[in-house]
Amino acid sequence: MALPRALAAPILTRRGLERGAPFPGGRPRKVAMVYPSPYRVGMSSLGFQWISSVLAERGFQVERVFLPEDVEAWRKARACPVSEETLTPLSEFPILCVSLAYELELVGLIELLRLAGIPPLRRDRRRHRSGGHPTVLLGGPLTFSNALPAAPFVDGMILGEAEDVVADAIDGFFADGHLGGLAALPGGYVPDVHGETLPPVARADDTLLPARSRIWTPETELHDMFLIEGERGCHRSCTFCVMRRDTKPEPVTGRLDRGGMRLITPDRLLELIPAEAPRVGLVGAAISDHPQLVGLLEALLDAGKGIGISSLRGDRVALKPDIPRLLRLGGYKTLTVASDAASQRLRRTLSKGTTEAQLLACAEAAREHKYRLLKVYMMLGVPDEQDEDIEELITFTRRLAAIHPVALGIAPFVPKRNTPLDGAPFAGIAVVDKRLDRVRAGLKGVRAEVRPTSARWAWVEHQLAQAGWEGGEACLRATEAGGAFADWKREFGREGFPAPWRVVSDAADRA
Ligand code: SF4
After folding, report:
1. N or C, which end of the chain has less CB nearby within 10 Å?
2. Which of 244, 258, 317, 418 gets mutated to test ligand 1 (max ligand atoms within 8 A of its CB)?
3. What is the rounded (10 degree) CA torsion for 249, 254, 256, 262?
4. CA angle, corner 460, sides to 454 and 461, nearest 5?
């Protein structure tokens, strides 16, 4: 069935706005690069863009498919999601290469498969060679912590850094018609072979770094920004974080390694940035710890580029005042740092070194360089959080706001696998909401805005973060039932789930 004009038009419009290096066409081996969130989110993902490029360089015909912005309109029109490049229906690709950033994007994957008429569960699909369904290969940031709930939906996964492995895996698929060889590759996980035991994550050879995008567009939140990683990994040890240094696999070559960070030199970065790219986004878990960051920012400004940065450590902003100054000159409007916990005591217990003095220096820098806002990311509900910690947060935020307008980006703490805090309890929806109310009340009348993420959805994320395969099946049932919170609560509260799930669902019941 032809795609209705109203659904095709936005795709053609945004294609026309893209700049950079389009994916070559006319090749025989077609791969759908699938992002289970809308275009504006997927095209802001450096990993998605990078793996697409790696596959194109290896001779595959790469076509991108995103979750439609308006799923309901596509459902009503009974339209199959299509690729950006040739409007080919998703169901016609032999293999789908899916990038999953975090747990709740599983819903987007299920929606995409259902819209395409592809049974979401692997056990319900037939192999493509026999006129059946596409094979599904999955990778992405979620594979660094717990990708088990995604297992029922995929034929295989690549855990960790996929750029060394993904082309070989897909070569094997086109040769044999299945992903059988994947199990022998680094990071290769085949549910039918491994069961629920995940192999170690893969680590790419340093020579393949840095990841970089090939297309920039005004149609994303990052607006016409060419993304490139200035470093990979982190040398710090925050106990809640999957990017911490101890969670990394052993180096393959170790040429770039500096205590857990793989640093890319400014010369190499500048050589790879296209002259015509108007803005450059520097990416890396600990990019502000790059020892040559100031020189790099100066060189980018000299080249007339706008600048963005994926993360800033408060201590670096405090110790190197040139960083906020240069970023502001590069068009950076909101100075964003993380305090991570409500009080100094809790920051210490999480091994987060940032101090109050450093955060105050960030507020001073935001004022001095006329930033629109100081945005501070933090978590509520970390282990051992007490009412006194919340009072300290309020008092301290009032001090920050006296210097410069503040936005507190507050996310409920969700413990992740592959971190020291794996297995720590979720605080409970009622507890998080009560503390949020207290923070809002305590900040009334000051220049501090509270921007929380939902405690309910954090609870769902927690269920999935701690789950095995059964979490994926529960996710499917909840999505098919409509995906309201009550649907998730019912699924996770079913008898037969492991004990921790019951405990957490009790916390939800109190909400
Ligand atoms: S939270 Fe940031 S500084 Fe801490 S380990 Fe993770 S990436 Fe590194």
Report:
1. N
2. 244
3. 0
4. 85
Residue type, 497: F
Express each pLDDT in 303-347 by its tens digit: 999 999 988 999 999 999 999 999 999 999 999 999 999 999 999
Asked if residue 77 lies in contact with residue 7, where contact means CB atoms within 8 angstroms, the answer is yes
Dihedral sign from CA coordinates of 433, 434, 439, 443: positive
3-state DSSP assignment of residue 321: coil
pTM of the model: 0.93
Rounded-to-integer distance, Cα 92 and Cα 108, Å: 19
Tell me the CATH number at 400. 3.30.750.200
Gap from CA of 488 to ligand 1 centroid (Å): 30
pLDDT, tens digit (0-9, with 9 covering 90-100), for 207-253:
999 999 999 999 998 889 999 999 999 999 999 999 887 655 555 45
- Ligand 1 centroid–CA 237 distance in Å is 7
CA distance 96 to 390: 46
- Does 180 lie in the same domain as 78? yes
Please check whether residue 412 is in contact with residue 340, taking contact to mean a CB–CB distance below 8 angstroms. no
- Residue whose CA lies nearest to ligand 1 atom number 4: 238
Residue 382 belongs to domain spanning = 208-422+429-441
Ligand 1 surroundings by CB, under 6 angstroms: 234, 236, 238, 241, 243-244, 285-286
